[in-house]
Design goal:
This protein has about 180 residues and is mainly α. The protein has 2 domains: about 1-75, no CATH class; about 80-140, no CATH class. It contains 10 helices and no strands. The protein has helices at about 1-10, 10-15, 20-35, 40-55, 60-70, 80-90, 100-110, 110-115, 120-140, 160-179. Helix 1 (about 1-10) crosses helix 2 (about 10-15) and helix 7 crosses helix 9. About 20% of the residues are buried.
């Protein structure tokens, strides 16, 4: 990724890092930690897209966003869409249809009450932290499902006595004929 940036943003790259191997090593360590939830393939794909779309050397924040946007190809909603979905679903939450199970789990980890009652300036960052952690676990192979509530068992209705059923049917026919 850094070689790709060095080739495509040559002057900006050297203006940012100079010839300091120590500074470049610290930057690489920081980026490696921040991009750890994503696979090497996702990071490289995002880096190529950033090179194609951006005129300037990307920030770490821009790279994280590019990696998150690449997750949409895997069926995950974008962070903002996931937040809005989790914040607006009615209760019971586990009975609702979800675009992806991670949305439900991120909402549950954030706290349904926080999502419902706190201002977005508070609830969105909390949701984003939970979302990123769950995405990291998902990318590591953990499988998430939504445990649906058990349907209440209906007791079987006792069979009607044939005479009573015939009498009830006759009453219904009489009512319909009178109208």
């Amino acid at each position: 990724m850094f070689a790709l940036f060095q080739l495509n943003f040559h002057n900006q790259y050297f203006a940012a890092f100079g010839n300091s191997a120590a500074l470049e090593a610290r930057a690489k360590r920081l980026w490696k930690e921040a991009l750890a939830p994503f696979s090497d393939e996702q990071i490289l794909r995002a880096a190529r897209r950033v090179v194609e779309e951006c005129e300037y050397l990307p920030t770490l924040h821009r790279m994280i966003r590019a990696c998150e946007e690449a997750l949409v190809c895997q069926g995950l909603p974008e962070l903002r869409a996931a937040y809005l979905e989790a914040a607006t679903k009615p209760s019971p939450k586990n009975a609702q249809p979800w675009s992806h199970p991670l949305v439900y789990h991120a909402g549950r980890a954030t706290g349904w009450e926080l999502l419902r009652e706190a201002p977005e300036a508070v609830s969105f960052p909390a949701f984003a932290r939970a979302w990123r952690e769950l995405v990291r676990r998902h990318l590591a192979g953990e499988v998430f499902t939504v445990d649906r509530p058990a349907l209440p068992e209906r007791p079987a209705a006792p069979p009607l006595d044939p005479r009573r059923a015939a009498a009830a049917l006759a009453d219904l026919k009489r009512l319909v004929a009178e109208e």
